[in-house]
């Protein structure tokens, strides 16, 4: 996903697109990283790296309904929040909150992070989001949650021991003390948290103590990282995790956003995973610059396999990058009905509906071009750019017609249309930055239309990208571009995602 640049620099973010709340662990020479997935299924993407820079998705931890049930009333930006990934006693441990009503905190294990992961161990007595796991020298497991509450647990059964106790909740008066991570580093236990909310005021602070239960003294230079009140191109920096590099140096993975356009700045890819160097001074971490380019690390880079731009749907199962809204029943989504095609059977009548049949991938580049070959057959469906049920653009085919639709808040409109012959048609979306005009200039432009038989592209709609941004829609996710069926059965021969910039 990341590329080494010719001038001895690496590109930040290291995991671009809607990949927030990173948690990382090292096992020998290998690194593994997970992120939040919210209302999408399968949940919790899992990445592998040998160098902390180049990350390859190797699976999704929650890929079975027995692990993850997101009902139709799961709100957008609900679902799976802030996992913590750790390796202890020969196995991987993953603890996470499903904020869907009645779900709560859950713990999963695996011997191979690519899967399969276990069914959940429920933690009904652990209240709060963003759970963390840490083991002390005698094997006791401590779970710390947002707000600075901590309790001893049995990670095999989910049993808790004693009442939860407060440890440290960050800067007095700061909102949203969350994302706790507890580590033993040298002679101290360190408690790292995010605070200030995950918007422009986001920050990372830290405290240390002699035991995992405290008392904790805060770092005198807290926050150790924040970009609030700056013009830096990366904003909302926070929700961090610490890890050692191959040479023993320390690094931080964290979330951030890349706002574009005028005021207040709109980020459209969601919160992404960035990398920053860490040094230690007087027993406290000092975080280096979080910049779009980082100096190449001291160790050799190990690029992963290049991701093919086109998916021909020639495998029996979808690749791990594909995600759906809330669930993916096989009777509504399969590559086995028509060889080399993805078949979607409609359930919800449009992308406005929570049970829409949708299969997409995260938009990971600020500029990109997407094409898909669609056979609407006796149905209706097409290609969409989705943020949530109330914010999406799509180009769809049915009954000899292609049309572009836009949903923004309570407004839904047909932007443009044209007739087409019966049979498969190539639909397209292009996303590019908007040249700045004034303080109201949006972040990008989304064009939707149809590719003609001679390869030329006919635009049926040109739309302002700000309305598919977090600053407009709210929530915690980013854009997902994909395929959907809104009526009947729709077949897709291929899907092509071509990055045209960072």
Automatic annotation (TrEMBL):
Beta-xylosidase C-terminal Concanavalin A-like domain location: 310-498
UniProt cross-references to SUPFAM superfamilies, sorted A to Z: Arabinanase/levansucrase/invertase (SSF75005), Concanavalin A-like lectins/glucanases (SSF49899)
PANTHER family linked: BETA-XYLOSIDASE, BETA-XYLOSIDASE-RELATED
Assigned keywords, A-Z: Glycosidase, Hydrolase
Residue ranges of coiled coil: none
Superkingdom of this protein's organism: Bacteria
Protein name: Glycoside hydrolase family 43 protein
GO molecular function annotations of the record: hydrolase activity
Family (UniProt): Belongs to the glycosyl hydrolase 43 family.
